[in-house]
Every structure is written in structure tokens, then in C-alpha cells.
Amino acid sequence: MSTTQQNNRVDEVQLLDDHAVDLFAKAMKEKLAKKRLQGFGGWHDISTLRDATLNELLLRAVAKGDPVDVGNFAMMLFCRNDNNKESA
């Protein structure tokens, strides 16, 4: 495979990856908006919602088989991690 073919393949794979992430992020945002309308929220407030509770909700979402809920709970835990705040 030539260098040009390899670069084209990498570009194609990156486009597919980026598109998939964009689609998933859109679904996550829509689900979060729906839940806010239902009165849910406050995941960012550690004084009212412990990490252990978010972990439990994440595990329930995995068991339920809802990838969007899994993504949202994983995002919440990810954003609470001090090491990740600088990369945002």
C-alpha cells in the first residue's frame, strides 16, 4: 500500500470515528435535555450526588443495555475527575 493510500485510509477512518462520536454526542445531549425536562439534573454537584451513586447508575444502565445512558453516566464521572478538567 502506498503512502497516499495509507493516508487516505487514515483520513477515512478518522472521518468515520468523528462522525460516530458526533452522532453519539447528539444522542447524549438529546437524552440529557429530555431528562432535564423531567426534573432530573445536578449530576455535577458532589454534595447532592455521590460518585458511588453515579457508578451504580452507570452499572444499571449497562445491565439495561442502554448505550446512551451508559455514555451519559460515564461522561458525568469523567467530568468529575480532577485530572480531566484541564482537557476540557
TrEMBL record:
Domain of life (superkingdom): Bacteria
Protein name according to UniProt: Uncharacterized protein
Organism encoding this protein: Collimonas rhizosphaerae
